[in-house]
């Protein structure tokens, strides 16, 4: 198919033709609209319950572009509060994480409790003459839901429930949060949230995690270096697994997508951590337990994906969840939570933590390749000539829906096998649906 130069009137996303305008990566007008249409009505991942061991614990996070405090109040309830004083907008909490009984604004000292209620106002009697109704001036509170330890929030009162928002993606989110032995809620966050900035639009990262599993070319150097502990020249421990499988692209109508291996049958454990015997022994034991616990479902080995629009994750011995925080059309903050199996021996937790830092994030050799690609591609989105020519998403464009015998893959998901840009097209189709509403 010939891709025609886009006219100024061309639609930003043409799902049928598999083209996407470059302008959606560089236009500040489109970016401002995204905040309202794409981020505001969606549920946002803001953290994990393992970050809160005591009442009063809090961490900062983001809902779309908004700065929030996630706090555990005296009754043990998790609250997600807009970190913006109702007086003049100062952040009322300026630490990344800690334990507190209240938040006092550093500008004029209004103070709020862990549930966001306005409790203290200087000059309440002599200045406001007690006419200030403090119950109306608490911190803005988000709707909050917890799913298998993951904490989600939205400020949109009209948004569907989290279960409705996730649809069949809930199955994969539950799978992500299961320990290597298949136990539900089996992970805990290790260390603080890793944060950094990158000079590109947030959608470069989102679409990459949604389904781009064919850019190995970019990672040739780190593959050859072999940072994996599998004993193979590779980035990933799971590269050691050679049992026959199909690579699946799983796309949900809500824009959520998954990359996964589906093994033809329950397979024997292969040494994913051959260079660290204690860790390998742990994973070997977990492999058998998981098959016993999950049965046929254990044939699925998820590798990563996204919860639309900007929560992204990796699995397979490198379990992490992140958010692409939209800062501007050409600036993104990345926040990344690293997870280790809660009940694993310390040597497993330490090995994983070190592996994550070598693999991903600003110090990670793999993600440095990705960020170089995305930030360089960003420069190709705004030139007076380049901006007129759309990007191509036609790989496997005409792949028909296949019937899969595994009902647990999801009733409403489109599942295709092999190399495809179907997940990316689904991501942009959902984006377009919301932007056009
Ligand atoms: S801005 Fe917070 S008290 Fe004035
Ligand atoms: Fe990559």
Specify the number of helices.
9
Largest sheet: 9 strands, antiparallel
**List of distinct ligands in this structure:** FE2/S2 (inorganic) cluster, fe (ii) ion
Distance from first to last alpha carbon: 29 Å
- The count of DSSP E runs of length 2 or more, i.e. the number of strands, is 22
Can you walk me through this structure?
With 437 residues, the protein is an alpha+beta fold. 23% of the residues lie in helices and 25% in strands. The chain has nine helices and 22 strands. The strands form five sheets. Strands 13, 14, 15, 16, 17, 18, 19, 20 and 22 form a nine-stranded antiparallel β-sheet that branches. It has a four-stranded antiparallel β-sheet with strand order 6-5-4-7, with no helix packed on it. A three-stranded antiparallel β-sheet has the order 1-2-21, with helices on one face. Helix 4 packs across helix 9. It starts with 12 loop residues before the first strand and ends with a helix. 44% of the residues are buried. The N terminus is likely disordered. Bound molecules: FE2/S2 (inorganic) cluster (FES) and fe (ii) ion. The site of FE2/S2 (inorganic) cluster has 9 residues, from loops.
Keywords:
alpha+beta; 4-stranded antiparallel sheet; 23% helix; single chain; binds fe (ii) ion; 9-stranded antiparallel sheet; 9 helices; 22 strands; 437 residues; binds FE2/S2 (inorganic) cluster
Describe the protein's topology.
Layout: E1 13-14, E2 19-20, H1 28-39, E3 44-48, E4 57-63, E5 66-72, E6 78-82, E7 97-99, E8 102-104, E9 111-113, E10 118-120, E11 143-147, E12 150-154, H2 162-166, H3 169-176, E13 187-189, E14 194-198, H4 202-211, H5 220-225, E15 245-251, E16 257-263, H6 277-294, E17 300-307, E18 311-314, E19 320-328, E20 331-341, H7 346-359, H8 365-378, E21 391-392, E22 414-417, H9 422-436
Antiparallel strand pairs: 1-2, 2-21, 3-12, 4-5, 4-7, 5-6, 8-9, 9-10, 11-12, 13-20, 14-20, 15-16, 15-22, 16-17, 17-18, 18-19, 19-20
Helix pairs in contact: 4-9
The structure holds FE2/S2 (inorganic) cluster and fe (ii) ion (FE2).
């Amino acid at each position: 198919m010939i891709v025609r130069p886009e006219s100024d009137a061309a639609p930003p996303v043409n799902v049928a033709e598999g083209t996407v305008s470059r302008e959606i990566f560089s236009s500040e007008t489109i970016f401002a609209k995204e905040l309202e249409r794409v981020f505001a009505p969606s549920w946002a991942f803001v953290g994990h319950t393992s970050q809160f061991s005591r009442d009063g614990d809090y961490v900062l996070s983001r809902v779309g572009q908004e700065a929030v405090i996630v706090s555990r109040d005296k009754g043990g309830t998790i609250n997600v509060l807009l970190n913006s004083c109702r007086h003049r907008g100062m952040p009322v909490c300026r630490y990344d994480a800690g334990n507190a009984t209240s938040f006092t604004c550093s500008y004029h000292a209004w103070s709020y409790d862990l549930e966001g209620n306005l409790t203290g106002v200087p000059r309440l009697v002599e200045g406001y003459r007690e006419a200030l109704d403090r119950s109306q001036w608490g911190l803005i509170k988000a709707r909050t839901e917890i799913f298998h330890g993951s904490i989600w929030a939205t400020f949109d009162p009209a948004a569907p429930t989290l279960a409705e928002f996730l649809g069949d993606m809930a199955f994969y989110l539950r799978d992500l949060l299961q320990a290597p032995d298949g136990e539900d809620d089996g992970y805990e966050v290790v260390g603080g949230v890793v944060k950094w900035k990158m000079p590109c639009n947030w959608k470069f990262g989102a679409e990459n995690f949604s389904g781009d599993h064919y850019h190995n070319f970019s990672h040739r150097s780190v593959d050859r270096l072999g940072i994996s502990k599998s004993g193979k020249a590779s980035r990933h421990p799971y590269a050691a697994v050679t049992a026959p499988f199909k690579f699946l692209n799983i796309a949900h109508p809500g824009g959520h997508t998954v990359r996964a291996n589906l093994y033809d049958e329950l397979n024997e454990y292969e040494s994913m951590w051959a260079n660290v015997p204690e860790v390998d022994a742990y994973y070997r034991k977990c492999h058998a337990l998981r098959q016993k616990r999950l049965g046929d479902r254990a044939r699925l080995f998820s590798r990563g994906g996204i919860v639309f629009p900007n929560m992204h994750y990796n699995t397979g011995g490198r379990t992490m969840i992140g958010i692409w925080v939209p800062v501007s059309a050409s600036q993104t903050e990345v926040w990344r939570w690293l997870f280790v199996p809660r009940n694993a021996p310390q040597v497993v937790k330490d090995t994983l933590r070190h592996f994550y830092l070598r693999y991903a994030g600003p110090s990670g050799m793999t993600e440095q390749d990705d960020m170089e690609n995305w930030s360089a591609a960003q420069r190709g989105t705004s030139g007076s000539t380049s901006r007129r020519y759309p990007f191509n998403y036609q790989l496997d464009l005409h792949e028909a829906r296949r019937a899969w015998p595994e009902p647990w893959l999801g009733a409403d998901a489109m599942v295709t096998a092999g190399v495809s840009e179907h997940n990316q097209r689904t991501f942009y189709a959902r984006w377009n649906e919301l932007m056009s509403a």
